[in-house]
Amino acid sequence: RRVWAGLRGVTLAFYGQPRDCEPLEVLDLSKLVAVWAKGGDLILQLRGQGQKVTLKAESWEAQEMWRGFILTMVEMKVPTDLALLPGHLFQLSEALREEWDRRAIPRAVPRVPSCFFEVTRLEAEGLLERSVGRGNMVLRPRGHGQGVSVTTRQEMNGMVLLRHYRVNHVDQGYIIDVDTQHRCSSLAEVVQYFVESSKGSLQPLHREYSSRLEFVEMDGENAEETQRVCEPPPAAPTPQP
After folding, report:
1. Is 232 a domain residue?
2. Does a structural domain hold residue 145?
3. pLDDT, tens digit, for every residue of 154-191?
4. pLDDT tens digit sequence for 8-29
5. Could you tell me which residues are beta bridge partners of residue 41?
6. 94 and 129 housed in the same domain
7. Over 60: is that where the pLDDT of 83 sits?
8. Domain span at residue 176?
9. Can the keyword NAD be found in this entry's annotation (predicted)?
């Protein structure tokens, strides 16, 4: 039968409709022994009498995401054998952080560096060109869960030098694919390697935040749009004795 599923910690709930509040059935994943994909099925092996639960997802990617979320909640760590893009792995890390917060257990969770952008190679080159002076290196997805790419932009004698480097995702971290391969335990170490190896000439591009509150206002008479800066409200008058 077709149902909608929701994961809350180690409880997997099934609903008849997306907006239903009461589940039709719940599954306690604290008894999970293993979860694996077989064909178009996602099979959950539970402890006790060899119970198995078979689920189907609409796509292979959705199936792998569900496997990742289930294992993350049960093991309280992001699995290292997932064939997912870095953006998806970031979602798992965020879900794990929220679960640690929900359980009120302090825990440091690896995060994707702020210089990681969900862009293509050409988009990364354009991003660096528009951001001269704010950083000259970005991380981006490489596709098919194989790792990430590092794109750098430098200028020498008036010429622009663009470089792209492969960073392979392995079980225990990442391997930078250069002449002498370098192993890193996290993407933050990957960024640090490029900064230190270039003696600081490569710097990560961080997301820019605006220091002014701006908005676009529509003129009702001539239908013209005007960009304005939001002014702070006037200070309240000081009460007199």
Report:
1. no
2. yes
3. 999 989 999 999 998 887 788 999 988 899 988 999 99
4. 888 888 888 877 878 888 888 8
5. 38, 56
6. no
7. yes
8. 121-198
9. no
45-80 pLDDT per residue, tens: 888 756 788 888 888 888 889 999 999 998 888 888
| Distance in angstroms (rounded) separating the CA atoms of residues 167 and 184 | 10
Q: How many domains, the chain?
A: 2
Asked if residue 168 is part of any domain, the answer here is yes
Closest CA to 202 of 150, 140, 157, 126: 150
Can you give the CATH number for the domain in which 155 is found?
3.30.505.10
| Sign of the CA dihedral with 81 first, then 82, 88, and 91 last | negative
* Backbone phi and psi for residue 138, each to the nearest 5 degrees, phi listed first: -135, 155
What is the SS3 assignment for the chain? Answer: CCCEEEEECCEEEEECCCCCCCCCEEEEHHHEEEEEEECCEEEEEECCCCCEEEEECCCHHHHHHHHHHHHHHHHCCCCCCCCCCHHHHHHHHHHHHHHHHHCCCCCCCCCCCCCECCCCHHHHHHHHHHCCCCCCEEEEECCCCCEEEEEEEEEECCEEEEEEEEEEEECCEEEECCCCCEEECCHHHHHHHHHHHCCCCCCECCCCCCCCCEEEEECCCCCCEEEEECCCCCCCCCCCC
The pair of structure tokens assigned to 125 is: 């080159």
Q: Check if the beta carbon of residue 153 is closer than 8 Å to that of residue 161.
A: yes
Is a pLDDT exceeding 50 seen at residue 100? yes
Question: Is position 82 within any domain?
Answer: yes
